[in-house]
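Q: Can I see a sequence and its folded structure?
A: Here is a first one.
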Amino acid sequence: MTAAPVKAPPGWTARMEAATPPHRDRTVDALRAVAMLGVVLGHWLVSAVVSDPYRPAALHGASPLSYASVLSPVSWFFQTLGPFFFAGGYAAARSVGRGDRRSWLGSRLSRLVRPVLVLAAVWLPALLLLSAAGAPRGTRQVVWSLVTHPLWFLLVYLVLTALTPVLRAAVLRWGPWPALAPVALVALTDAVRGRGLPTWLELLTVPVAWAGPYLLGVALAERRLPRVAGAVLLPLGVTGGAALVLLAGYPASAVGVPGHDWSNLDPPSLFTLALAAAQLGAFLLVRPSLARLLQRPAAWAPVALLNLAAMTVYCWHQTALLMVTFAALPAGGAPGLLDAPTGDWLAYRLCWLPVFALTLAGLCALFHRFERSAS
C-alpha cells in the first residue's frame, strides 16, 4: 500500500493570498505601501547626523538639500504624505459603517496609538540615560527630533479619523467637491506667510490641508470619485506646481530645508497640495493596470506584508537610522554616516540604506506584536 504524499505547507505568498478578503482593494494598499516607502527612504536620505570632529559625541542634524539645491526635484518622489492620507481616508470610510461607531473609532485609534506608546516606553528612558551619561545637549536634541518629528503626522491622522463620519457625510452629499475647500485656507496661509503666521492659523492649516487628499480617499471608497479624476488631477497638479515654483517663487523642495525662509510642509502650502494632486492623479490613471498586476500572489504578498506592519515601520524607521549611526561612533564614523552631507555623501548614503533596512526589519520583528494586538 503506497503512502499518500505529504503536501508541503504553502509559501508565505500563498498564505498572504489566502488571507486577503475578496473585497479588499489591493491598489489602495499598494498606494499606502509606496507612500510608506517614500516617507522612510526620504527620511533616511535627508536626515544627516553630523559628528563634531573635535567632540565626536556632539552631534547635530543637517540635510544634503542645504548644500545641493539641484536635488530638490528628488524630494517630489519621496514626499508621499498626500497618498498616505488618501489611503487613510479610503480605509476609514470603508470601515466606518460596520458596527457601532464608537467602537469603530476606539479600534481605529487603538491601532494608531498603541505602537506610539511602545515607542515612547523605549525612548523616554533612553533619553534620560543619555542625559545622565552627559551626552551633549545638541546630541539629545538630534535624537529627540528624529524620533518624534514623524509623529506629527499621526496627530493629524487621529484628528481626521475622528472626523471621518462628518467628512463621509459631506462626500455622500456633494461628491468629491468638498476636497477643494482646503485650498482656500491654504491659499490664505500662503498669502500671509511672509508676515509671520499666527500659531492658531499654522496649527489649523495642517489638518485642513491634509483633509483634501483624505476626502478624495473617502470619495473613492464611496464610489463618488469619477473615472476622469485622474486625467484632471495629474495635469492640474503638474502645471499648478510648476507655476508656483517658477512664477510665484515657492521653494522647489517638497520638504523642509534647514536655513530656508519657509517650508512647503510647515504648514502645507499650495505646492504641497499640487504635488498631492499630481501623485493621486497618476495613481488613479494606472489603477486598472495595477489591479491586474496585484492579482499575482508574488506581487501582492510584499504589499500585504508592508501594510500589516505599516505603523511599526513608520514608528521605528528613524530608530534604525540612529542605531546604525551610533554603532559607527566608536570607529569615528564612515562615509555617509556622521560626516557632513556634501560631495559624495549621498552616494555613500545610498550604500547604507540596506543596513538601515535590515536593522528596521529586526525592530519590526521585535515590536510588530503590539501593532498586531491592536488590530
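Q: Show me another, different protein.
A: A second, unrelated one:
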Amino acid sequence: MKRTAATMQIAFTYIGTVVGAGFATGQEILQFFTKYGSVALVTILVSTGLFIWLGTKVMLLANEIGAASYEDLNKHLFGAKWGERFSLLMLVELFSVAIVMLAGAGSVFREQLGMSFLLGIGVTLALGYVVIMGGMKGIMAVNSVVVPIMLAFTGIVFYRTTQNADFLTFEWLHQDDPYLPGRAWIAPLLYSAFNLASAQAVLVPLGAAVKDRTAIRLGGAIGGVGLGALLLVGHISLSTHAPVIFQYEIPMGLVVAGMGTAIHLMYLLLIYAEIFTTFIANIFGLSLQLEQRLRMKRRTIVVLALILCFGISFVGFKALLSTLYPFFGVLSLIWFAMIVVRQRSSA
C-alpha cells in the first residue's frame, strides 16, 4: 500500500508539474503537434517515450546522489563549473516562468471571471506561500488533488468529442501537413526538452525524497504515460475542429464551448489550477537552490521571490510569454542534449 501510494503521488506530481497554462488552453498541443497533421499521432508517441525515459532517469539519478536541488544534479552531470553556470541560467528560467504563471493567473481572473487582475495575483500569492512552505509534501498534496480532476475532465471532453460528427468521419486523421516534415520531428524534442528542464526543479527533490526506487520507476512510467495520454486526447479533440481551431488563442475554449455551463466552469478552474501548480513548482525549486547559495532562511527567500514576482507580473502574460519562452526553449534543448549524452556514456 505504501508503494502504491508513493507511486501515484510521484505520477500525479510529475504530470501536474509538466502540465501548465499552455497545455490547459490547448495552445501548446496545437503548436507542437496538431498543426503538423496526421504525423502528430507518431510524434506524440515520441514525446511520451521521452517523458517516461528521461523523467524517470532524472528522479533516479537525484535519488542516487541525494541531490538537495537541481543544481546538485547539474553539477553531477556537467561538472562543478559548468553545472553551476547552467543552474544559474535555470534559476532565471524558473523565476521568469513563475512570473509568467502569476500574470496568467491574474489574466484568468480578469478575462474569464470578470474580476480584478490584482485579486487573481493576490489569491495566487497567498495560496502559493501556504503550499510552498509545506515543502514537497505540500506540492504533492496539491497535485494529488488537481491531477485526478484534470484527468476526469479530459475524459469527459474526449467522450463528448467522440459523439461529434466530425470525429466519426475520421477526417481528422488525414489532415494535410502544410509544414516542412523536419519541423514536425523537431517539435516533440523541443516540447519534451522545455518541459523536462523546467520540471527538474520538482523532479530532483522528489526523487531524492522518495527512498523506494521501484516506486520512482513506476511513478515515472505512469506519469509519462499519463502525459502522453493527455497529449493524445487533447490532439484528437482539437483536430476535430480543424482548420478553424487555428484561429483561436485559447483553442480548448472552442472545444468545450456548447458542452454546458458546468463543463465550462470546470475548465476555467483547471486552467487556474494548472497555472498554480506550475507557479508553486518553480518557486519551490528556486527557493531550494537559493537556500544552498545564500545564508537566508527558506521562508525569507520565498517571501522575497513572491514580492519580486508580484512587481514584475504587471508587465502582462502575453508580453512575458512571447519574450522569454523562445530563449528558454533553446536553453532547455542544450540541457536535454547534455543529459542524453551523459546517460548514454554512463549506461
